Amino acid sequence: MKHYHYIFTGSGLSALMTVYEMVLSRKFEDKTILLIDEDSKKTNDRTWCFWDENNLFEQVVSKKWDAALFADKNFKRELNLEPYQYKMIKGLDFYKLVFDTISKQGNIHFINQKVIDFQELGNHCVVKTETESFTCNKIFNSIFNLILVKTQNKYPLLQQHFIGWFIKSKEAVFNPDCATFMDFSIQQKGNTRFMYVLPTSETEALIEYTLFSKDLLSTTEYETEIQNYILKLGITEYEIIEKEQGNIPMTSYKFWKHNSKNIINIGSAGGWTKASTGYTFKNTTKKSKALVQFLLTKNNFRNFHKRDKFWFYDLLFLDVLDRRNDKGSEVFLALFKKGNPTLIFKFLDEETSLWEDFQVIWKCPKRLFIRALFGRIFRF
Questions:
Q1: Domain map of the chain by residue range?
Q2: Which of 94, 194, 248, 370 has minimal Cβ neighbours within 10 Å of its Cβ?
Q3: pLDDT, tens digit, for every residue of 312-356?
Q4: Nearest-CA neighbor of 76 among 182, 189, 172, 190?
Q5: Is the CA virtual torsion 344, 350, 354, 358 positive or negative?
Q6: Structure letter (DSSP) for residue 154
């Protein structure tokens, strides 16, 4: 069996970003690295969005907005995002950037196979695919294990699930300078449901029907709602350029408990997804940088994770939506109706002080969160 220093089981966002950070650090040139994934990452399979005040991956940002719209049935507010901008990165552009970079490194290899098993055996690890086996010093696993979360009831599991259409319309109905962050004016049907619109010109946009809920819908249900919303926008003629579909786990489950000395779970498999929003890109940039720095000085992956106050905030929010999934629009309306959007985004980026936390949390519906707090105390 061929031996590597590091093997990444799965080559999604977290794996690619961690390897990319390794290359940029220039501290791992003497380490052999293998990425294994059944997906060759040669299609535009997803879109990542995030708010940012720096030049994070600016070379592959395809569009950015200085303003965003929040709306429900009876309220609309255009949010000034300064000093942030809302940015979009297409999956294929990111994959190309990373693979172009790592292809120049003689110590990094990629194998297009499916991982079927991996385990730690004393001071080394073994990874098995359908046709081969490899040994390594350490494993970075990003293959999500849904059974871990579903077989427990201490931490709720919701899903951010969506279908999106990139369309080109006959009518010029979009404002390319303003993204629609959340539009709750659509029927909620007992869930947290909203439309998400990213216009790239007056006639082109990504329109997504998104839910924060436990159960997925049929494809027809998502697409019917998108069609209805397109008509509501006043569009009578359009073509679908591309489609995307996603399902992101939203949970505060303690994935890090399953880390061992030589195996670490990363990405959604390691709890890197922001549990209360389903946003992944910004959180992953932070976690991957921290993990690379950790590798330079420490050896035991059990010591990587540090739980903080934001983990508990996310847990309470998920407790609210788990018990009253129909109240999501009410919670977000309370935040964005009069709240400072810059402070809210800073809070969601987990960069606020306790006083700033209080300013955001105080705007939330108090009865819902107090009940969730007492319920959570008895579940610990």
A1: 2-61+89-152+252-303, 157-249, 309-377
A2: 370
A3: 999 999 999 999 999 999 999 999 998 999 999 999 999 999 999
A4: 182
A5: positive
A6: S
Give the C-alpha separation, 148 to 258, whole Å: 10
CB burial of residue 55 (10 Å; 0-12, 13-18, 19+): exposed
Residues 6+ apart with CB under 8 A from 103: none
Q: Which helix (H) or strand (E) holds 171?
A: none
Per-residue pLDDT reduced to its tens digit, 87-134 = 999 999 999 999 999 999 999 999 999 999 999 998 899 999 999 999
Rounded CA separation 156/315 (Å): 8
- Give the single-character DSSP code of 176: T
Q: Which amino acid is at 162?
A: F
Read out DSSP for 287-341? Answer: HHHHHHHHHHH---GGGS----HHHHHHHHHHHHHHH-GGGHHHHHHHHHHHS-H
Rounded CA separation 57/5 (Å): 27
Continuous H helices in the chain? 13-25, 91-102, 146-150, 219-232, 281-297, 309-323, 328-338, 341-348, 354-361, 366-377
Report helix, strand or coil for 376: helix
Please tell me if the domain spanning 2-61+89-152+252-303 has the same topology as the one spanning 157-249: no
How far, in Å, CA of 281 to CA of 51, rounded?
10
Looking at CATH, the fold of the domain delimited by 2-61+89-152+252-303 is given as FAD/NAD(P)-binding domain (3.50.50)
